[in-house]
Design goal:
alpha+beta, four-stranded antiparallel beta sheet, 9% strand, elongated
Length: 748
């Protein structure tokens, strides 16, 4: 500390230089969104899907454009404009294939070979009614390329795999330019490129809005508390400095910001504020006693600096508990947040302390000493804990039982649409496809031929047909296509395009003739469903967004059918696809959450033992911090909020931050006992010297996380509300329960 006092000006200058460099680096921050990030790392189903993808490509490389015409799409002017857009779609950058009802044909076998019959006779409006009736009768294209009411048509574009953000923006720019050129105003988009654009825009908006609102809130609270411009300016500049340094460090490390990134500004501003307030309160209190600045800062760092370090370490451990997660965004959030907490601590200890030494004492001290009022009310709380210990203990036990009940009813039936920006076009478009088409979630069924059989063998096709029939029978699954779709189409073409012939041929001889035809006239389509050596195939489908738990039941039902109703000596079916992998997250969220928190509790327990050197104080410190975790879980259960990847970070934040107040309280209590005070005197002095800072920091935490109610990301709103309520509960437990436990368990 003597060196800090000596080089205080140099220290401030270095931090200002680093902050300036960080500000210039902010433009290099990268934003990303990809469903692949949420796949459970190392999962056997993921490894299988990655191998499957190498042969067949990804299952989300598409963009759907549904164009509405409210009364009916069978209007000549509308169909001509839609058709021109369909033709334009074939020429967009990154388009591999484009499909719509105006560009598709029914194949028809004649004595002269195969001919094409338009599905919609564009130029002859007198045939529109007949065309629509046939489309309805066939039901091949309804819910995929046209809705059942005939009020919208879809252009389905297959894109190149894994487009990056810039590619997606260019692609969507061309899509919208063509829509505008063809005077198409009523349309709905759905697909990976559209999600990428919307989610990155949301992330940027959230980062800016939460940073601004959090900064304003911190500034307002500091003004209300200290009422001295110099003090507020010093504290606020320290907090902003920590945030700038952290974001600059993320930029240098090349970290990509995802949907959880909006929490970084709030966490840094609030955690930094808590550190600043603890240091500031202790320092100003010593100045009030006419202690000189150098002695006051040394004493403050000795008394508060250590506990602040410990609270920073335990908060970091809380976040680091997330690195055990199998989901990469959660791992990154945990690691980055832990780094941010330590950046905030280093900034406060060196930059804030140096600034305090540079500012004249008269600019820091207020004429009106408000600490006496704080002391009066805090002592009332202390008296309550001394007079009503049984009431507090029994209330705590009842509270714990209720929390356990709430935790027992947590569900993971998360719907994907809940992650969309609320009231956004993306959310509305997604709902449109849910209500009028087969939804978005892709489902793939991998087909593996066994015992030297091939996917194109007749007996294997019959097994595939059974699997397809099972998928079609599910009310939540649609757009089922496979190699059988080609055989059924050829069979229909040979029988005057009658719908009843959309099935596999009955005999082997007919099948063989169709097989030759398909390899001649539909080779490109065949390659979508069968690999080169015909040992593997795929059934592609779409699944409605009915909730994770509900979908897992659907998958379980399908797996049971595969195990009991298919010939496993001929062929093996295996469910795969990005949608199914995302749905597996619920299993890993529970497991990794418990594992991570268990490791976190162990590490914090070790730190507590080293700090307090007393097993009883360890137990006393853990009880008020386990209960807030249970309370957070109970809120999820009682409010019927599904536990999903994003919301699971609540527990790490609660655990990491709530334990800070406990450490400050018990740390000050132990210091008072070390200075010769008895139990009651130590508790009374702890309330007086630490209670104010605990309440102020919790108020900051409460309103800081309440800022998230302005988020357009629904899970973020939920997290903000739950964290605010839970951390307030943690403070109440610390102020009421800790003194009772100390009196009950610690000898005088």
């Amino acid at each position: 500390m003597q060196k800090l006092i000596k080089f205080k000006k140099l220290t401030v200058a270095i931090f200002i230089l680093l902050a300036t460099a960080s500000a210039f680096l902010l433009s290099n921050l990268k934003f990303t969104f990809d469903f692949d990030q949420f796949f459970p790392i190392g999962d056997p189903d993921l490894l299988f899907y990655q191998e499957f993808m190498e042969e067949f490509g990804t299952d989300d490389n598409f963009l759907l454009i549904a164009v509405e015409n409210k009364e009916t799409v069978f209007k000549k002017d509308f169909l001509e404009r839609f058709h021109q857009f369909s033709l334009d779609a074939e020429k967009f950058s990154y388009t591999k294939n484009s499909t719509s009802l105006t560009t598709l044909f029914y194949p028809l076998k004649t004595s002269f070979g195969y001919t094409k019959i338009p599905i919609i006779h564009l130029k002859d409006s007198t045939r529109y009614s007949t065309d629509w009736k046939k489309i309805q009768s066939d039901s091949i294209f309804t819910n995929s390329l046209i809705d059942t009411k005939g009020t919208s048509l879809v252009v389905a574009i297959e894109t190149e795999d894994n487009l990056d953000y810039d590619n997606c923006l260019l692609f969507l720019k061309e899509v919208r330019k063509s829509l505008k050129k063809n005077h198409i105003n009523e349309y709905h988009l759905l697909g990976r490129a559209y999600f990428y654009e919307a989610f990155v825009a949301m992330q940027k908006r959230e980062l800016l809005v939460t940073s601004a609102l959090s900064a304003f809130l911190v500034l307002l609270v500091l003004l209300i508390i200290y009422r001295k411009i110099a003090v507020v300016a010093l504290a606020f500049s320290s907090i902003v400095m920590a945030l700038l340094l952290f974001l600059g460090l993320l930029s240098i490390l090349g970290k990509e910001l995802n949907t959880l990134s909006s929490f970084y500004p709030i966490l840094l501003l609030i955690v930094g504020s808590a550190d600043v307030i603890h240091i500031m309160d202790s320092y100003l209190e010593k100045l009030q006693l006419n202690i000189d600045k150098n002695t006051a800062i040394i004493s403050t760092i000795k008394e508060v600096g250590l506990t602040t370090l410990l609270t920073s370490v335990t908060t970091a451990i809380g976040f680091l508990s997330l690195v055990t997660s199998k989901l990469m965004p959660i791992k990154d959030f945990g690691l980055n947040s832990a780094i941010g907490v330590m950046v905030a601590y280093i900034t406060v200890i060196f930059f804030t302390s140096a600034l305090l030494l540079l500012i004249n004492k008269k600019h820091l001290l207020s004429k009106n000493n408000s600490t006496e009022k704080w002391g009066f009310y805090l002592q009332k709380i202390n008296v309550l804990t001394r007079k009503k210990p049984r009431l507090i203990l029994y209330s705590t036990i009842l509270f714990g039982i209720i929390c356990l009940w709430g935790v027992s009813i947590i569900n993971t039936n998360y719907e994907f649409k809940a992650s969309f920006p609320k009231n956004s076009k993306l959310a509305n478009d997604f709902s449109f496809y849910q209500e009028n088409y087969s939804g978005f979630r892709p489902l793939e069924v991998a087909i593996i031929a066994k015992n030297n059989n091939k996917i194109t063998d007749f007996k294997v096709l019959k097994e595939i047909d059974k699997m397809e029939a099972k998928l079609i029978a599910s009310k939540d699954i649609g757009e089922v296509t496979s190699i059988n779709t080609l055989f059924k189409g050829i069979h229909k073409a040979h029988n005057l395009n009658k719908k009843e012939f959309f099935s596999l041929p009955k005999d082997y001889k007919t099948y063989e003739s169709y097989k030759k035809d398909i390899k001649k006239v539909a080779r490109k389509q065949l390659q979508k469903f069968v690999n080169k050596n015909e040992t593997k195939g795929r059934i592609s489908a779409k699944v409605l967004d009915i909730g994770t738990d509900s979908l897992i039941k659907v998958y379980s039902n399908l797996n049971n059918f595969i195990a009991t109703k298919t010939d496993t000596s001929l062929v093996k079916f295996r469910l795969t696809g990005k949608g199914m992998l995302l749905d597996k997250n619920s299993i890993y969220i529970r497991n990794s959450l418990l594992q991570g928190l268990g490791i976190g509790l162990l590490l914090v327990g070790i730190i507590m033992v080293l700090l307090f050197k007393d097993i009883k104080l360890l137990l006393i410190s853990l009880i008020p911090n386990i209960l807030p975790l249970l309370f957070a879980g109970a809120l999820l259960g009682f409010l019927e909020i599904p536990l999903e990847a994003t919301i699971s970070i609540i527990f790490a934040i609660v655990f990491g931050i709530a334990v800070d107040d406990t450490i400050h309280f018990l740390g000050r209590y132990k210091l008072c006992r070390h200075n010769g005070l008895n139990k009651e005197e130590a508790i009374e002095k702890t309330f007086k010297e630490t209670g104010r800072a605990l309440i102020i920091t919790t108020v900051l935490l409460f309103f800081g996380f309440m800022v998230l109610i302005f988020s357009v990301h629904l899970p973020s709103v939920t997290i903000g509300l739950l964290l605010s309520a839970t951390l307030l509960t943690a403070l109440i437990l610390d102020l009421l329960l800790l003194p009772v436990l100390i009196r009950k368990w610690i000898k005088n």
